[in-house]
Amino acid sequence: MHSVDKDLFDKYMHQLWLIRKMRGKQYKNKLDAKSAAKGIQLAKENAKTLLNDAELLFENDRFERSVSLAICLLKNLENQV
Fold it and tell me: Under the phi-then-psi rule, with left for phi > 0, alpha for psi from -120 to 50, and beta for the rest, what region is 24?
């Protein structure tokens, strides 16, 4: 496995781990403006990372994975709206 592929794989696996860890947990406290802004900023940063990874995969002829990651990006953006 190329080092670029391994780095992307490690990032992807970490994101999956985070998603699985948070599944079924719902925030139950009041959300203040500062916390909401922080959450929005983190979501934007995650979207940028997904886009960069998808572009890198595409540039390295990993089209199927690139499309898959782009779909994750769209889902991420959908949740921000």
Answer: left
